[in-house]
Amino acid sequence: MGTVYEALDAKLIAFIRRQKLFFVATAPLSAEACVNVSPKGYDSLAIIDSRTVAYVDLGGSGIETHAHLLENGRITLMFCAFEGAANILRLYGNGESCSFDEPGFAEKMALFPAFERARGIITVRIERIADSCGWGVPFFDYKGERDQLGRSVAARPPEEWAARRYQANAVSIDGLPGLAPYTEGEAEAVTSVL
Fold first, then answer.
1. What's the 3-state SS for 143-171?
2. Of 11, 31, 79, 87, which is least packed with CB atoms within 10 Å of its CB?
3. Over the range 72-103, which residues count as b (16 or more CB within 10 Å of their CB) and which as e?
4. What is the pLDDT of residues 88-110, one digit of tens each?
5. Are the CB atoms for 100 and 165 separated by under 8 Å?
6. Are the C-beta atoms of residues 25 and 76 closer than 8 Å to each other?
7. Is 85 helix (H, G, I), strand (E, B) or coil?
8. 10 vs 5, 47, 48, 102, 133, CA distance in Å?
């Protein structure tokens, strides 16, 4: 039987930091649309406080997490013990995505000094923390990170990289809005609605 926790404590934080891989799950509101699950490697997660985490979104072929968070904010992060004692830890919460061209991105990116460039930062306000046995998770040996993603980002000048992000990540696979160039007019429109 699993345990539900009020907040991330020292033991849970230590468990999270030992993991070389975690998974992110989001879903749109439409019952006909696709649920998304993405693996995240590297040292890409920051624990901000006992109820908030963030991870650096390095980019990829899809924009599902960003699009789903824009629509409804629901997100779950899952960490599995692939070595040592069996355990699965899930962080359920409400997330927001801050894209590379939005205000506040540089401050959020400072949480990840090992990364020169990223598509966005995903911040999760944790609403539920629960673990489970993890007995069905096999043992795996960690051999290292793949370097293709880093090389791909470094190979493009910033302007070309940004243009590629907008082009490849404009909409989700279900047609939800993805990345679009940020403009001050959009910020004023959003602010006037709030």
1. CCCCCHHHHHHHCCCHHHHHHHHHHHCCE
2. 31
3. eebbbbbbbbbeeeebbbbbbbebbbbbbbee
4. 999 999 999 999 999 999 999 99
5. yes
6. yes
7. coil
8. 12, 11, 13, 33, 19
Residue 62: exposed, middle, or buried by beta-carbon count in 10 A (0-12, 13-18, 19+)? middle
| DSSP 8-state code for residue 187 | H
Cα 31 from Cα 8, distance rounded (Å): 32
Q: How far apart are CA 28 and CA 76, in angstroms?
A: 13
CA distances from 129 to 13, 55, 144 (A): 12, 17, 28
Supply 145's token pair: 């990170």
Q: Return d(Cα 122, Cα 98) in angstroms, integer.
A: 6
Q: Which residues are bridge partners to 130 per DSSP? A: 4, 90
pLDDT digits (tens, 9 = 90+) for 17-72: 999 999 999 999 999 999 999 999 999 999 999 999 999 999 888 999 999 999 99
User: Residues for the chain: how many in total?
Assistant: 194
